[in-house]
Amino acid sequence: MHLILPAVGIGIGNELNALNNTSWIATAYFLTLTSFQPLYGKLSDIFGRKPCLLFAYTIFALGCLGCGLAQSMVQLCAARAVAGIGGGGMNAVVSILLSDLVPLRERGMWQGCINILWAAGTSTGAPLGGLLADSVGWRWSFLGQVPLCFVAFIAVYFVLDLPPVSHDHWLTKVRQIDFLGAFTLVIAVVALLAGLDSGSNLGWSHIITIVALSLAPVFFGLFLFVEMKVASNPFAPGHIIFDRSLFACYLVNFFGVAGQMAILFFMPLFFQAVQGLTATQSGALLVPGMIAGVIASLLGGWIIKRTEKFYAITVSAYALLFVAALPLGLSVWFRSTTGEVVGLVATSLGAGCGITTTLVGLLANAAVEDTAVVVACSYLFRSLGSSIGISTGSAVLQQVLRTQLASRLPNGDEAREIEENVRQSLDYIKELPPHLAAQVRSSYQVATLGALALITIYLAVSFLTAFWIKERPLKR
């Protein structure tokens, strides 16, 4: 659904008279998706994989129904938040099920197949959203998901045959839930993501940003205390959180995703702001990298299946991801479109392979009974990495852009006005006189290089952390 939103967001904002708040349609969904994803691991251990997946489909369908019937932006965002609770389960539980059912040496190949479906959805989501918005209206972009969820629910209910995890009464199972841990984790994640979103949009000195980012580490600390000292059946036991190899895999995922997602976020902006390309053209330049990432994921899975080893291919993948960021930066400096596309392909090769092999590394280093929790936590680290990578990169880009415009434009008020207008719409650059447009494009180029410098640091950390992962036999 989030792939369709860019194409229908303007129509939603116009009809609900809230065009300036359309970003919250995506933010509301992402907040709950990221917050609840890690909870599904332990919940699926308590209640079973199948009931949790059916619950996720039901909640997602109800959220989509609410979105389609919403009469205000507040109602729509609330419904999106409900859908995010279900979406988190759809992601996490399916991955947990695959890890349960597929031999570990073949897990990478199956992950590659899933990535093919993801790539297909990514490439068709925006055009499909535009088609729906122009034909039957944006509401059917949401309502159309409801019957699909119903079909998925029926298929899972009748086809997926899994033994029950226990025959305990449902009240007994409810008592096993770590409610305090769930509460502190959800509050911590929501505070962090809300603070990052506020910092990017309202400024890093805004009171909402300061309060949210101050609360996040407090509640993360409380979550760790609850899991280590209070909870009898914790969502994230200490032997998982502080295991060297598992934590190394989580950090590799966090910093690798932070860097790669930031690259995929900033490069289209660079194509449009500096090289004057359209949104369609800049999107097309990402397609080769998308294809390369899928191929690398399949290749990484195939190598693991043949060799039954994952350490060397994981280190190699993140080495490629880190090294490829350097020529990508040079291509941005020289404004070489060919070099930029090659750089994107190279980084996607490393990221696509690495995200698959680290998943195998996590499963190989975890006990069988910890599979669900380990997989669910990996989604949390990926989501947080994506948010932090983009938010901190945006902060660097905006600061460098502001400094560059102030130094290149003699009139300080003019520089501030141009900066504000460019943040609202990149089309504003085309309205400027040629000499001013050239200065703005050059400023944006240097600002992009500043963001890429931070991204390179993230990728270097992911590469170095990969050495901490332990090789384990793939016996399961």
UniProtKB/TrEMBL annotation:
Lipid bilayer topology: Multi-pass membrane protein
Localization annotation: Endomembrane system
Residues annotated as transmembrane: 52-74, 80-102, 114-133, 145-165, 177-196, 202-226, 247-271, 283-304, 311-335, 341-367, 446-469
Sorted UniProt keywords: Glycoprotein, Membrane, Transmembrane, Transmembrane helix, Transport
Protein name according to UniProt: Major facilitator superfamily (MFS) profile domain-containing protein
Gene Ontology MF: a single term: carboxylic acid transmembrane transporter activity
Native organism: Fusarium falciforme
UniProt GO cellular component terms: endomembrane system; fungal-type vacuole membrane
Broad class of where this protein is predominantly found: membrane
UniProt similarity note: Belongs to the major facilitator superfamily.
Ranges for domain Major facilitator superfamily (MFS) profile: 1-474
